[in-house]
Design brief:
single chain, mainly alpha, 9 helices
């Protein structure tokens, strides 16, 4: 009887380590030798799971995307009398950038000449937009307003990006980041200008 394959299980074990390594090193500085070293495996083990470094990086982007959406769903399930999108904003206001996963995304933005990386980022941002837009529309009573809903959703995504950049560069304190995400985010949800 053949031994059962552990490929899927091993891949799931390696992905968080790969994502952390790409977050630390970026795409260009991460060699497959260094990725393998951090994963505690030989390079050929990585190549059993992924065709090349680009495929490894795309897998890391998808891992980060799944992790973010799963985290948002967890925040949404904690009913505290606020809307689901407000709970996502509250979570992000307190934890934005905490795990460093944004570094993978920022590194990927510099690699959009690679079609697989570009397409992975597009899928990730479309997924973020779909989840947040659904919650935004629900918070607004289920009334869809085009193009306002789409624009507000993109603005919320951009707000997270700007807050992360400001914090990463030491331009915005953690407290200011929290206020930025919460206050401007709530204005976008309500469809009003911030006070």
């Amino acid at each position: 009887m053949p031994r059962p394959s552990r490929l899927n299980e091993q891949r799931a074990e390696l992905l968080p380590i790969l994502a952390a390594a790409f977050g630390d090193l970026g795409f260009r500085r991460a060699t497959t030798a260094e990725l393998a070293r951090r994963c505690g495996v030989r390079e050929n083990i990585l190549y059993r799971h992924w065709a090349d470094k680009v495929a490894m990086f795309v897998a890391a982007i998808e891992y980060v995307s799944d992790l973010a959406i799963d985290t948002w769903r967890g925040a949404v399930n904690k009913d505290d009398g606020t809307t689901e999108v407000e709970r996502i904003l509250a979570y992000e206001a307190d934890h934005l950038g905490e795990f460093g996963n944004y570094r993978i995304i920022f590194s990927a933005l510099g690699e959009t000449d690679q079609p697989d990386i570009r397409n992975s980022l597009r899928r990730m941002y479309r997924r973020f937009h779909a989840v947040l837009r659904e919650q935004l529309v629900a918070a607004r009573g289920g009334r869809q307003r085009e193009p306002e809903d789409d624009l507000a959703t993109w603005a919320i995504i951009g707000l997270g990006t700007v807050a992360t950049i400001g914090r990463e560069l030491g331009l915005v304190s953690k407290a200011a980041q929290r206020r930025l995400v919460q206050e401007v985010g709530h204005s976008l949800i309500r469809g009003t200008r911030p006070a």
